[in-house]
Design brief:
InterPro entries: ICL/PEPM, Pyrv/PenolPyrv_kinase-like_dom, Pyrv_kinase-like_dom_sf. The chain is of the alpha/beta class. α2 links the parallel β1 and β2.
Amino acid sequence: MANPSLKAAFDAKKFIVAPGIFDMISTRVADGMGFDCLYATGFGTVASHLGVADAGIATYTDMVGRMGRFAQMAKTPIIADADTGYGGLLNVRHTVMGYEAAGISGIQLEDQEMPKKCGHTPGRSVIPAEDMVLKLKVAVEARRDPNFLIVARTDARTSLGLEEAIRRGRMYGDAGADIVFIESPETEAEMVEIGRSINKPLLANNVEGGRTPILPAARLKEIGYSIAIYPGAGFLAVSAALERVYSHLLKNGDTNGLPAQESYGFGRMCELMGFPEVWEFDKKWARKD
């Protein structure tokens, strides 16, 4: 079942900042920090799980299993990327039902043609808006829990222009989407226009080095946005840290001399992974002879 606190936060007009999670370590770290929502990124999850590009290679089976594991581990509600719904209308129905049953609190569906691509990369094409409207109507009908939120994303801005992207955003909101996600606006002025034009909670996708300017939370709220996701912040930082540590090891032959901030600390990692509970269990059930 969906975590009702996420819908309650939107209903209360609370601005939400959601970090991207992409594996179980990032989920555990982010879950303990007090965010109102976590965002399960497709790019990062596909990269960490399969080691390939987010280009429509991952299947529904790949993703629902991973997303469900995130939800089992986290107390914080999760919005999860579900690409195009992994096929036609029947696939969308099963995707919504599967993500909801897995414990996800919100699903993101997009209007790209299959195979899809990451939203801040070139070469994306979109299906007719009317086809996406049908997908969203199926998604709305398929959910069982009213607290389960549907995020409708359009990638039309890059190939068809801002006006068409806004038109689609309105259509998708009218079709029942709870949150509208216009991918890849390229200026703050475009984001202002989106906020002015669509009367639905809006999602801002903040990708470091991507197409969209990263605005402060206060500014996003001021221009009409309700949630900002940071899908890449975690895996970009982890990749940079790994490269620094591995480079040091290659150069020096050991990890001596690494700055303290380059290590999470083994003891702290044991705590994060739940080893204290394991140790207590072992003490309780140790043989006394």
